[in-house]
């Protein structure tokens, strides 16, 4: 892979290349062609995609502004006026249920001077009121109160034009809420495609659906958000090495898992939308928390989901829905990797359980999730250390000129006749290659808002 560089604006500063004039609309930064930075066909990635601030700014405008993004779980909104706040990329948003029961999402920014109109993480309210000048909005985002409104010119002032900015599209799937700023985005079901089959193995085990317990756990990590999203989509390879001590602690003998478990067979799914999941297919792959394992009737699950899903993605696996939503079925963990600049991410995690679980089973799964993949979890800390280590050295000049290898499993992708879509061996970078391929495709495609700006 050849890495081409822009002329430096400062001596010694590494620059990425464009394919022409810097012609993006004002306010969106340079239009940087990333074709030389991601070579999916040959499995090579330039690590500047994790460190360059201008690439980060461009992915906010072209990846996060155009994609379907995870917001939360429907169980977080029980009645009209319930709300929670989250992010879409770096944009703060409010998610609420209006008086008609419709779930809505708005940019959490007052139309007057731009302050947030809601600063609480969650709660119940009748209106969203900015504490700066007092502009107030109802649950449908309409501006309903303006102090000293008679000071605005009657001939040009129209309150109805100054409501909160609402997302272009919002949809739910399997109890999860997604939204996009992109009015031209394909439907959520189409974006998920075959990925939904694998998600159902986690989120459709119970006819009553799922619920969330324990609130949202949040922490900050040094590392680019893509490192986490990529790993959860494609990387079973790191498990035996990175998590060796944790596997020893969890094994009955204290010596680690048996060889047939450590080197389990499995499959990895990936698609052209950047979604990916991997899972063992060992016949004894079951839930790790004993009360959870004992809760399930595996025969009933087989009748509901089919044998392939029960022997595969039902339990121990990993998955990412592009760009930054991930989950772990065996732990009941769902998570989003919020970008906070090229060198930092904020991790938000929920514990998701089947509604029919007893309180004892719920507690067991919640505690198992916290012990393994909470901020102090024995697996979670290993992952965070790896991502922070990669980020810490990637700003070095020589380091940042050497491409990374994503060639494992290259050419092994196939339609295996068992699992839908393109799958490869469990130990593979296939989903990683497609994740970065989708990222590069979006980065090189003018977004809907750029097309509107150019008219």
TrEMBL record:
Q: Which domain of life is it from?
A: Bacteria
Molecular functions per Gene Ontology:
dioxygenase activity
Q: Which InterPro entries match?
A: RHO_NdoB-like_C (IPR043266), Rieske_2Fe-2S (IPR017941), Rieske_2Fe-2S_sf (IPR036922), Ring_hydroxy_dOase_asu_C_dom (IPR015879), Rng_hydr_dOase-A (IPR001663)
Q: Which residues form the Rieske domain?
A: 68-163
**Which is one Pfam family of this protein?**
Ring_hydroxyl_A
Keyword terms:
2Fe-2S, Aromatic hydrocarbons catabolism, Dioxygenase, Iron, Iron-sulfur, Metal-binding, NAD, Oxidoreductase
Map out region (Disordered) in residue numbers.
1-20
Q: Which family does it belong to?
A: Belongs to the bacterial ring-hydroxylating dioxygenase alpha subunit family.
According to UniProt, the name of this protein is: Aromatic ring-hydroxylating dioxygenase subunit alpha
> From what organism does this protein derive?
Microbacterium fluvii
